[in-house]
Amino acid sequence: MANSRFxxxxxxxxxxxMLLGGIxxxxxxxxxxNLGGFKxxxxxxxEARFDNIGGLKVRSPVTMAGVRIGEVSSIGFDATTYExxxxxxxxxxxxxxxxxxxxxxxxxxxxGEQYIGLDPGGSEQYLQQDSEITMTQSxxxxxxxxxxxxxxxxxxxxTGGGF
Amino acid sequence: xNWLASIGxxxxxxxxxxxxxxxxxxxxxxxxxxxxxxxxxxxxQLYSVxxxxxxxxxxxxxxxxxVLGLQGYYILSRFAAESTLGVFxxxxxxxxxxxxxxxxxFAGRAGSALTAEIGLMKATExxxxxxxxxxxxxxxxxxxxxxxxxxxxxxxAAMFNALGVLGGYFxxxxxxxxxxxxxxxxxxSQVDFNKDIINGVIKxxxxxxxxxxxxxxxxxxxxxxxxxxxxATTRTVVHSSLAVLGMDFVLTALMFGD
Lengths: 163, 258
Known about the structure:
The complex is a heterodimer.
Chain A: H1 2-32, E1 44-50, E2 61-64, E3 67-78, E4 83-90, E5 102-107, E6 114-119, E7 131-133, E8 135-137, H2 142-158
Parallel strand pairs in A: 1-7, 2-6, 5-8
Antiparallel strand pairs in A: 1-4, 2-3, 3-4, 5-6
Chain B: H1 2-30, H2 33-37, H3 39-50, H4 54-78, H5 85-123, H6 126-132, H7 137-175, H8 180-190, H9 193-220, H10 226-256
Keywords (chain B): Cell inner membrane, Cell membrane, Membrane, Transmembrane, Transmembrane helix, Transport
Membrane topology (chain B): Multi-pass membrane protein
GO molecular function (chain B): phospholipid transporter activity
């Protein structure tokens, strides 16, 4: 009898451990990783073309007024126009985005992650599945800006301006 | 000539031990029916190997997470990047620290016990007695222990990770005033389920196999004297730790290499 009692306790303890392990895994999946939370309430897809997307990646956020309203679902390349084709996946509840919205690739902080910021236009018509955002602004590439700055400085001093 | 022979002797010994270890693993894997016939034993081993390791794993998990929270905060706040503290804690725990530290603790807490137990059985000739009764000691004794270790380590590692993240949350959000929303949101957007969590689980399964395998092999092959058992126990901890750390590098290179 004592033996079976011990075995019951053992089994209960093992069961508790397995349960705890399962809970821990579930916690990791839902709370820590991308499986839970902001996810797969697939909304509608909108296309935008950029000359240069910089460090933009799939799953980068899409924001409007700083609020996350979707994410980048795919990035392609158009071989005839040499442009990057970015597909944005916008959440269904944000279905009143004007068609003349302006899409910019912005950077969080000075060296942070890049994301797409949308500035709403004034149109009465709204973006729908497979619409295209025509007004875009490319990513801020630090080297190009520095290059332009140096170039204009050099020109300035060559023409007698400057110091 | 002599020193050349001694090098060769050592090399042959290492190879022979590796081969014997491999044979033992094959023998264990070839007799999985021991798991069914000795299911009670398997449960009892899960208890002594897994449940009894819960305390040390949970406490270490919480403290490792808290230290990560502190150190991460000090460094990240210099670059005004405290918002990524959650990512830093979760990624380092799930990818590396969880599986590795769990395996190291497991080798010290459970592996050494397994070696001592099997080694003492050998020294007191219980293994020979089983063989005399035509009972295969591998399937009777080693199989339940092996699979108990294999099951326990991933579960323990998952708990280590979860408690570590909570410990980091406590320090980062509770003490250092990082915003709770960004802490979780950044973590969720940067930690990938397949790439990070599943790979971490695969790692901990591999480490579980390595640790239990080494522990059982050392016990099974121990010199049947009290000195031999003490040396086997030491070797279990040393070899398991080295194997886990080395294997971790290989697995990391394979999983996160590209």
